Amino acid sequence: MAHSDRYAMLLSSLPYHGPLFGAKQTPLSRIRLNQRLALLDPVEAECLHHARRLLEWAQQEPDRTDAQAVVRAKQVIDGITNPFIRDLVTWRLELRTLIAALRRRHRGESAPRDRRWGFGRWVSRIMQHWNEPAFGLEHAFPWLPEAERLLARGATVDLERLLLGAVWNYLERRSDGHYLDFEAVVIYVLRWDMIARWTTYDGEEAARRFDELVEQAMAGVEKSLHPPAAAPRSERT
Length: 237
Description:
Elements: H1 3-12, H2 30-37, H3 42-55, H4 66-78, H5 83-106, H6 123-128, H7 144-153, H8 156-174, H9 182-225
Helix pairs in contact: 3-5, 5-7, 7-8, 8-9
């Protein structure tokens, strides 16, 4: 079967994903998605697999240092032969470097002295402009000042939403001209991963908030059932 026919068959079997933040669940299950992706040839499948492993939040190793993560990222990118996917992965890792820098500065850390803490073309710029708002990169990344404000406020969910929205919009721009090719498949899968991430994250946050409300309510009930004993009245002499 010709490549174009396989891509057409694959993409026509994938349901429309709709907007990211309106989604309640992924457009199809992970099992179904993997079944559809079996139409890819082994080289394409491996390329997509490496990109997803590098980008998915769930695949990150929390015990790995920044320098180790950068070394691993470069190793994976060097193994990606498709220039389109390499560009997508590079952009996402540069975004992560920006957010990592914001978090470091928010914790009161000084500018890193070693370039190995981050990835991509902005590392030197960030180190040189460490004390400037948004590292002086607000023109290249218009959402960066807002990310800085949300981080300062501790607005975790809003920050996650902002970053996912920036990535979603980037993929939208990169999808232009790709309709029935491997690149279109890649964009669909990366968006599927984002929907899976957001719907899971949104559900986790809702569950956490629900638990907090229940705990507060139960504390109120406990207090009403067991009011503190009244202080003994002093006797007049």
